[in-house]
Amino acid sequence: MSSKTLTIFCAGLVLIHLQCTTTKNVKHQHHWRFNDPYINQTIITGWEHINKRHYEWAMLDFTRLIQKNYIDYDILFGAGLACYYMNDTVKAIDYCTGAIEQNPQHFEAYFYRAQCYLALNNKKKALDDLHTIAAMELNQPFICGYYIDNDDLADDIALQERKKEAQKIVVAIVHD
Fold first, then answer.
1. What count of other Cβ atoms lies within 10 Å of the Cβ of residue 76?
2. How confident is the model at residue 34 (pLDDT cuts 50, 70, 90)?
3. Which domains are assigned to the chain?
4. Buried/exposed 2-11: b ≥16 CB within 10 Å, e otherwise
5. CA 141, CA 144: separation in Å to the nearest integer?
């Protein structure tokens, strides 16, 4: 391969890399909320692991952030969701509760915490969370990596869908 061909090939690889990196950053711009790009990329990677069902890897990403004191409701919910799917319901409840404390409108955290309560056969607490979702009105969309394919935003459409699911579960619990 001549040096000119090699130079063109390398330039092409650089352009492809820049295009992929730029697209990724724009696509998940809501997650770029910290000054440290490594932290922001770790958040995105954690949610990508959740999306790919690599829950152990997601948990490692989110716990690393929490240990470094980068804590917000989206990171806490990510850790809670990873724990939920790894069947660690007690930790999932703790993380989801932390997410709810930071964002009381985090209907996804309520939903998954309710699922954990059901797994522990605590129907009263599950019903409390499900009723909270059913009565919730969203003031504005919020960042939620769970919606990685919806610009990372939990919006009113997502809330309405979750309300339907919550109501079905309430009916099932009551008739059980």
1. 25
2. confident
3. 3-174 (1.25.40.10)
4. eeeeeeeeee
5. 9
Specify burial of residue 21 (Cβ count, 10 A radius: 0-12, 13-18, 19+).
Answer: exposed
The span from the CA of 111 to the CA of 165, in Å, is 9
Q: 118 with 156: CB under 8 angstroms? A: no
Query: How confident is residue 150, by pLDDT bands cut at 50, 70 and 90?
Result: confident
- Cβ–Cβ < 8 Å for 24, 48: no
Neighbours of 140 (CB within 10 A): 8
Please give the backbone phi and psi of residue 152, each rounded to the nearest 5 degrees, phi first. 60, 30
Q: What is the reported pTM?
A: 0.82
Tens digit of pLDDT for each residue in 98-139?
999 999 999 999 999 999 999 999 999 999 999 999 999 999
Return the residue matching tokens 């711009």: 29
The tokens of 103 are what?
């964002």
Confidence band (pLDDT; 50, 70, 90) for 76? very high
Distance (Å, whole) CA 39 – CA 68: 9
